[in-house]
Specification:
single chain, alpha+beta, OB fold (Dihydrolipoamide Acetyltransferase, E2P), 6 domains, five-stranded mixed beta barrel, 22 helices, Tudor, RNA binding, Probable endonuclease LCL3, cytoplasm, repeat
Length: 883
Amino acid sequence: MSLLEAKVKSVLSGDTVILHNINNPKQERTLSLAYVTAPRMRREGDEQFAFESRDFLRRQLVGKVVQFKILYKIPTGANREYGLISLPNRTNLPDLAVAEGWLKLRDDAGRKEDSEEAAAILEKLQVYEARAKAESKGLWQESGSRISSSSELSDAKQFVEDNKGQDLTAIVEKVLAGDRLIVRFLLSPTEHVQTLILLAGIRAPATKRTSPSDGKEQPAEPFGDEAQQFVETRLLQRNVTVNVLGTSPTGQIVATVRHPTQGSIAPFLLEAGLAKCTDHHTTLLGGDMAALRQAEKRAKDSKQGVYQGHVAPKASTAGQNEATVSRVQSADTLFLRNKAGAEKRINLSSVRQPKPTDPKQAPWVPEAKEFLRKKLIGKHVQFRIDGKRPATEGYDEREMATVTYQGKNVGLLLVENGLASVIRHRQDDTDRSPIYDDLLLAESAAQEAQKGLWSPKAPSAKQYVDYSESLEKAKRQLTLLSRQRKVPAIVDFVKSASRFTVLVPRENAKLTFVLSGIRAPRSARNPTETGEPFGQEAHDFANKRCQQRDVEIDVEDCDKVGGFIGALYINRENFAKTLVEEGLASVHAYSAEKSGNANELFAAEKRAKDARKGMWHDYDPSQDEDAEQADSGADVNGQNGDAAVERRKDYRDVLVTHVSDEGRLKLQQVGTGSAALTELMNAFRSFHLNPTNNQGLPNPPKAGDFVAAKFSADDEWYRARIRRNDREAKKAEVVYIDYGNSETIPWSRLRPLSQPQFSPQKLKAQAQDAQLSFAQLPSNPEYLADAIHFISQETADRQLVANVDQVDKDGTLWVTLFDPKQSDKPDESINAEVISEGLAMVPKKLRAWERSATDILGALKKRQTIAQEERRGQWEYGDLTED
């Protein structure tokens, strides 16, 4: 019989091979080597030397083109063919295998053969066998260890744990599909394990299979057979290196399989279009997933295999954009404002906020939102639209975007901290994040570290109490808040330009907060209502500057419906002043005077008027002149027929202990209080000199805490209150409650004020707030500094007499200060001296009790006129009150 040619697909045992047509791999035939037999390989356990015999033949033949000749057939059920095989290097089988001792002659070899050729072959094989026996080769070894081969893996997870990170040597025994292989792990020379593995990172089309539920045959998916054949021709019965990574939900091993010279098979399969990437293995592959994505992209671009009809989605032409985060609606939804002021809503690509409907995730909803608010509100970010999610029931169309802040992907930041989960996309989703694999890896790391959502413990829920719900509740909270200054808060909602909902986390309080000292035009509350001129502009401005921002508030009073009145500071600037300066609010004289911010508010209003901003766009200066003339002609007995408010006569001995940067005074009243303070300070000093009392604070200080603080100027200990705290720098701003001055010092200069004999309950804070009557200090910072310096010099280390002209509701004293050694007349006061130096002026808009003191006002105005004529202080360049 003539020689035939074929390619060896696989080796079934030491004496049998599978051959396939060189041009058509689907045409296969089984060939057994003539006259010989090998130990059997069986599922229940291999015969001794069965694997070694087969492995010898496998190494010689698999993947090679050979010539073969059929010698005879045995017409059994399989109709098996028997013959000889020749390799290109002229090696002949079974000759070589018999010579090496891995095959033995069959007992019935040649019994039915009577040809000379058969006799010659048998004679030669008998010689080879006799020599192998003599040399104890192969099967003829006197002693040999038996290989333990198992076809089942009892615990796949444990196997992965034991071998993760190792390069395991294996042989691919069978290719079930393009992504499913049965491999033999060669764990040791005497221990083998056969098991199913899944190729990591890919899913190949399924091959023809029988459904286990109903026994029906299911056809192969498109390109399923091609994928299987692709892997078979490259890996079947080849030595490979396997890295086990994990297990699938069904307990199958997920692993990478590497060819000895070509590397991992997965990228080649993807690039041929015979598989798709699967997201389920991203966390197992880590950074290696990127190479698979690139291979898949090349297949899509060239429309290979399963991507033959692929249509690439239209690339976004928008590119990278810049915007400011104007509002954080939730942990995955932001409102961005561009340079033109236009606002748009976007959703973060591929991430989802904690589910409000999930009892385990719901407590993290406010935590995630607050995390994002602190990071992003008011900040400049870059964003790129990744795609659009079409409208569905209950949801409008949404733009999915990648947002970066300071080079960090915001979605990734949330996932890393366990404050968002990653959306599981369908294969055809076009709106997935460009760093989707990184998101999956970050989620896996957060789960492993039990961060945020993945923590077994829920965060403590913050319940805010609405103190503006009723006037009674507001008054109770007012007592506490009015004692504090610059209380940290968050603007939760902007109701109008001057009315806000604020949250005070420190107090778990929710307040309706109204700006004092101004009146802002009203905006329309609904589409059918008409607002006042510039009402909407003012509302929009407040929204832009304040929405969800961290602010500080000073609470002064409350209104009739439970709203809290006071000053709101954003970036340490009074927002009421900002509104007035932009021409979006006017000064309300009475409340401005009452709040103590009249000077800066009137100065801001004047600047807005001069610049014709906002509501002053058609301002006529003559209107103010007419109003002033009307005021000056008004009856000093009062306004609108009301009785005049008398100026008090209440003389007290005082010491001025501090003059603030705004010109406000801190007074100590001389008498029983000052005597008690002297006694307390002596005891306080002795207490802190004792080494046993030198313990620092047990915990970081909090705003509002009373402490003992070591003043940097004299290194003495004084009673103080924490105004604000810097945890990063470990420093605190303290106010010395008996003197009124403040400074920022490290925590190391603080001690507890827990001793009852020194507490403010035993002796109340001795520094009282006060302001000079009849005097309006300059708004210009340079002249204001000169005024403060002059007042400090005139009052330093001197016991003075103060006439308390009026006491505000918050306890602030309006005083006229006299030096008893120099003042002989009512108009010879320190207030008058400040005006004489040109460092203050008589207010244009007087309080009712100031207007009643006509004799004092007349004398002070004369001093002011002289200061103007002599160009003193703020008058050095002329009359400030002239237009």
